Amino acid sequence: MANRLPIDDSMAPDGACEWRRSPGGLVSALHPLLRHTPATWVGWAGGTGPAPRLPDIDGVRMHSVSLTAEDLRDHYEGFANGTLWPLYHDAVEQPVYHRRWWEAYQRVNQRFAEAAAAVAEPGGLVWVQDYHLQLVPGLLRALRPDLRIGFFLHVPFPPPELFMQLPRRAELLRGMLGADLIGFQRAQAAHNFAQLVVKVLDLPATDRRIGVDDRVVRVGAYPVSIDTAEMAALAGRPDVTARARRLRHDLGDPQQVILSVDRMDYTKGIEQRLKAYSELLASGDVKVRDTVLVQVAVPSRERVGQYQILRDRVEREVGRINGEFGRVGEPAIHYLNQPFDRAELAALYRVADVMAVTPLRDGMNLVAKEYVAARVDDTGALLLSEFAGAAAELEQAYLVNPHDLEGLKQSLLTALRAGPEDVGDRMRAMRAHLHRHDIRAWARSYLSALDQAGSLVTRLGSTG
Ligand code: ADP
Ligand code: F6P
Fold first, then answer.
1. Is 362 a catalytic residue?
2. Mutate to test the pocket of ligand 2, among 30, 130, 307, 369 (most ligand atoms within 8 A of CB)
3. Which top-level group of life is the source organism from (predicted)?
C-alpha cells in the first residue's frame, strides 16, 4: 500500500477520463514489480470524493482509498508535503507544523489501515510504502495481528537534530515500529532511526534490531532500483531510436545535449543548476549554438505554496536565460513542464550526451538509474549529486556537490568535455551494476528479510 495508486486520471481530448501511469519514483519502482503478480495495491487515485471503483491494471487489483478535500489539504499537502517532506530533505525549505495537519495525518492513516485490514488475506503480507503512511504499521497491527507487515521509506530519514523538531515525533516512531521490518534507502538512515528510537522511546536498539514489547523489529538498508531490462529494451526499440534522432534534429543538431528530468520540486536543485548554466553561458564556456539544455520539470504538488513559488521562479529564470542568451530559433534552454510516456522519456535519455541529476537531497533518484539503463551503447555522461541516494551505488558518475556553484560549473564542464573512453568505462560499470541490482533484486532482498523477520519468535533479550 502506498499513498498513491500507480495511475493518474487525466482528461482525454474528447473529454473522457483516461488513466495513465503517475510520475514519481515510488510508482516507477513498484509498478513493474507487481505487474502480473497476484496482489492488491491499496492507495489514493488522486482527486477528492468517494473512492472510485477501478479495473485491474496490468493484473494488479486496485483498491482505492478516498480523500476528502480537507484530507487532501491537511494530510497530503499539509503534514506529508508541508511538514515531513521538507524536514526529511535537510529542511532545504522550512517545514511547517500545524496541529490540524497532524489530526488529518492520523485520520487518513487510520483509513488506510482499515482498508488494508479489510482486503488482506488471513496471514497475508502487507507492504506499506513511504512517509505518508508512517502510522499505518502500528494501526494495522492492532487491527490484524495475524499479518506480516513491512514498511519501506523511499525518502531520506533525517538525523536526530532535525527529526527532533517534530512535535509528534514519538507517535511517528511508534507507528513505524508496528512493522516487522523497516527498510530505508541508506544505512545512514537506519542508523538515524535507531538513534532516535533510543533517544525518544528509550527502547533497546541497534542499527539492525529494535526490541518493542515482546517483538523484535528488524531494520535495514535496501536501495530501491528500476526495471533495468525493461528500460534498456525500451531504449533500444527502433521507434525509440528513431524518435531520439528526430529529437536531436529538432533541437538543431547541436554538438551536445544536456538533459535534466525532475518533478518540479525544490529538493531537485533546479534553480542552482540553472544558475550554473547561466554563468557558463555568460563566461562563454558553453555556447548556445553548440550545446542545448533540455529541462523537463513535470508538475508536482501544484497546490502547495512552496511548489508554486518554485515554479514561478524557475520559469522566470528560464525566460531570463533564453532572453539573454538565446537566438531566433535557438533557445538556450528547452523547458518542458509536462508529463511524458515512457517511450518519450527513453528517447530523451537516448539523446542526452550529459544527464544532469543534481538534487540538493534525494532518497534515491530513479531518473539517474533510468538514464544509465537507457544508454544501451555505453555512451553518455552522468553528472550526479553526492546528495542523491543513487550516488552510493553509481560511483562512476561525475559526482558533484550541488550547493557549491563553482564546483557544479566545473563538474558540468568536465562531463561535457570528457573523452569517449572515460565516458564509456564509467557507463559500462554503472550499467553492469544496475543489471545486477534491479528492482527484482531489491524486492527479493527486502521480502526475504521480511520473511525471516516475521518468523522470528525470539525476543531481543535472547537474540542480542
Ligand atoms: P521522485 O521519487 O522524487 O519523484 P525519482 O527520480 O526517484 O524522483 O523518480 C521520478 C520518476 O518519475 C522517474 O521514474 C521518472 O521517469 C518519472 N518522471 C519524471 N519526469 C516525468 C515526466 N515528465 N513524465 C513522466 N514521468 C516522469
Ligand atoms: O519518492 C518520493 C515520492 O514522494 C513518492 O512517494 C512519490 O511517488 C513521488 O515522490 C511523487 O510524489 P507525489 O505522490 O506527491 O506526486
1. yes
2. 130
3. Bacteria
Alpha carbon distance 413, 426 (integer Å): 17
From the CA of 153, which ligand is nearest? Answer: 2
Q: Would you give per-residue pLDDT tens digits along the chain (464 residues)?
A: 999 998 776 545 555 556 667 777 788 888 888 877 788 999 998 889 888 888 888 788 999 999 999 999 999 999 999 999 999 999 999 999 999 999 999 999 999 999 999 999 999 999 999 999 999 999 999 999 999 999 999 999 999 999 999 999 999 999 999 999 999 999 999 999 999 999 999 999 999 999 999 999 999 999 999 999 999 999 999 999 999 999 999 999 999 999 999 999 999 999 999 999 999 999 999 999 999 999 999 999 999 999 999 999 999 999 999 999 999 999 999 999 999 999 999 999 999 999 999 999 999 999 999 999 999 999 999 999 999 999 999 999 999 999 999 999 999 999 999 999 999 999 999 999 999 999 999 999 999 999 888 654 333 333 32
Nearest CA, atom 16, ligand 1: 367
Secondary-structure class of domain 25-224+440-459 per CATH: alpha beta
List, by residue range, all CATH 3.40.50.2000 domains of the chain: 25-224+440-459, 228-436
Is 154 among the residues known to form the active site?
yes
CA atoms within 13 A on the CB side of 57: 21
Q: Are 19 and 151 in contact (CB under 8 A)?
A: no
CATH code linked to domain 228-436: 3.40.50.2000
User: At 409, is the secondary structure helix, strand, or coil?
Assistant: helix
Say how far apart CA 365 and CA 268 lie, in whole Å.
Answer: 9
Q: Are 437 and 394 in contact (CB under 8 A)?
A: no
